[in-house]
Write a structure and sequence with these properties.
The protein has helices at 22-40, 43-50, 55-73, 103-111, and strands spanning 12-21, 86-90, 96-100, 115-122, 126-134. It is α+β, with helices and mostly antiparallel strands. The strands form 2 sheets. Strands 1-5-4 form a 3-stranded antiparallel beta sheet.
Length: 136
């Protein structure tokens, strides 16, 4: 399956979306604990979510964001793009901000993108994210 074509002249250079059941994250936390957290999430992401009454939906939204970024880059996860190559933080108004490091910076440049737009949402049972790579 090929990703949809991005129209020429657009400043959108990649789009990804993902959705995950919160129960999958909760089960991974219970089964693998810190090993799971440290493999998937930055320290900042862990700290932000651990401050919530229930960290699982917060972590699930960030998991979905990383999956959506991998789809926007059209790489999936592997040597080109790893779990810790992206991080979701929050801006001054609480808005999510997706930043990149490591291999993702090179991918961003290869795609001709300068930054990512991100939206997260979660309910008790499901979390979703969309990532749009843009050039400015």
């Amino acid at each position: 399956m090929n990703p949809p074509e991005i129209p020429q002249g657009s400043n959108v250079v990649g789009v990804g979306i993902d959705q995950i059941e919160v129960s999958r994250i909760r089960e991974s936390l219970e089964k693998h604990g810190d090993h799971f957290l440290n493999k998937i999430f930055s320290v900042g992401e862990q700290n932000y979510c651990k401050d919530k009454a229930d960290p699982a939906p917060c972590l699930a939204a960030r998991f979905a964001a990383k999956e959506a970024a991998a789809k926007a880059f059209v790489t999936g996860f592997g040597p080109e793009f790893g779990w810790l190559d992206s991080e979701v933080s929050n801006g001054s108004k609480g808005e999510p901000i997706l930043s990149f490091n490591g291999n993702a910076l090179a991918l961003l440049e290869q795609k001709g993108a300068t930054r990512a737009l991100i939206s997260l949402t979660h309910l008790e049972s499901v979390a979703s994210a969309i990532v749009i790579l843009i050039s400015e």
